[in-house]
Fold:
Amino acid sequence: MGYTRAGFDVVGVDINPQPHYPGEFIQADILEVLEDKAFMADFDAAAISPPCQRYSNLNAYNHKDYPDLIGPVRERLEALGLPYVIENVEAAAPELRDPVMLCGPMFGLKVYRHRLFETNWPLTAPVEPEHKWLCARNGYLPTPERPFMTITGGKHSRAWQNAACDAMGMPWIKVPAGGDTRLGIREVCEAIPPAYTEFIGARLLTALDLEVAA
Structure:
């Protein structure tokens, strides 16, 4: 959504169904898609978010075997010669090349959500405001005393999921009454706030020297 707001025509790819994806979507293996040079020839740039579970601090407790896709994705992007963005969590920093860190307060969002972005074109982050506001505990709604949300997985309520969507700036994935709360919680907990990618997308357009149609 952020790249769309910045002015790009976006095609999303994921190996799993994404029923609430807000745009054109292809269910496919991203590694195979990136190897299809004829298909990729229609694109000006690529933005990839490899699964973060391998690098997440929670995996220190889960001990599950998750794929390491940052290297394979970068290898295919470099072969295409496209400007790219690779996103992941802070714990993936050793796998990323000179990443830029973005966080919610940089964009007026009431959530501390550090995410790293590797690019092969110049990108500079805004100044990060001091983390002086308190966060509600995970699963709890924000209060005047604790106005920021902690947005991580769990068995949360629909009210919590809706509030998390507001904090992240992505109301289109709010779970309505009677909806699948489990899917909605996973979606918001794994998401990147669109403000981050709108910021990056605007600068990518400049790097590409492209104009957005009025």
Notes: The chain has a mean pLDDT of 91. The beta strands are 11-14, 24-27, 46-48, 84-88, 100-102, 115-119. Residues 194-208 form the longest helix (15 residues).
